[in-house]
Amino acid sequence: MEIPPKSPDGSEKSPQSKGLIPSNTGSTLCMSSRSESMWTSASRSKWDIYHKPVIVVSVGAAIFLFGMVITSLSCFLPQNKDVYKMCGPAFLSLGLMLLVCGLVWIPIIRKKQKQRQKSQFLQSLKSFFFNR
């Protein structure tokens, strides 16, 4: 007959609790959350909110304009015409893709901001009525 091993601190554990790992997910949930602004009430500036889509739109517009220049070079310069005809549309499509992605991203962020404001308002109402 086997004797169950004792834990390092000397206390014996029941067979049910041997396989269980202690969990403190409640406290780590707030700390590991991706959006800390939901847990903190500090307001963010518009640049903090919209800087990523603005950068994507500006880079997309720059690549799109570069593609237009490269494509138009194939009309004016006879040497390397095949290279310009191949690279120009590639830059055009890449720039247009980034431009559209950034322009679609902005309304998505606005919608999330409105939902977050509603959620914070409802949370404050709930805490006002239930914490009395």
TrEMBL record:
<dbReference type="InterPro" id="IPR028068">
    <property type="entry name" value="PIRT"/>
</dbReference>
<keyword id="KW-0472">Membrane</keyword>
<protein>
    <submittedName>
        <fullName>PIRT protein</fullName>
    </submittedName>
</protein>
<feature type="transmembrane region" description="Helical">
    <location>
        <begin position="91"/>
        <end position="109"/>
    </location>
</feature>
<feature type="transmembrane region" description="Helical">
    <location>
        <begin position="54"/>
        <end position="79"/>
    </location>
</feature>
<dbReference type="GO" id="GO:0044325">
    <property type="term" value="F:transmembrane transporter binding"/>
</dbReference>
<keyword id="KW-1133">Transmembrane helix</keyword>
<dbReference type="Pfam" id="PF15099">
    <property type="entry name" value="PIRT"/>
</dbReference>
<feature type="region of interest" description="Disordered">
    <location>
        <begin position="1"/>
        <end position="30"/>
    </location>
</feature>
<dbReference type="GO" id="GO:1902936">
    <property type="term" value="F:phosphatidylinositol bisphosphate binding"/>
</dbReference>
<feature type="compositionally biased region" description="Polar residues">
    <location>
        <begin position="13"/>
        <end position="30"/>
    </location>
</feature>
<dbReference type="GO" id="GO:0005886">
    <property type="term" value="C:plasma membrane"/>
</dbReference>
<keyword id="KW-0812">Transmembrane</keyword>
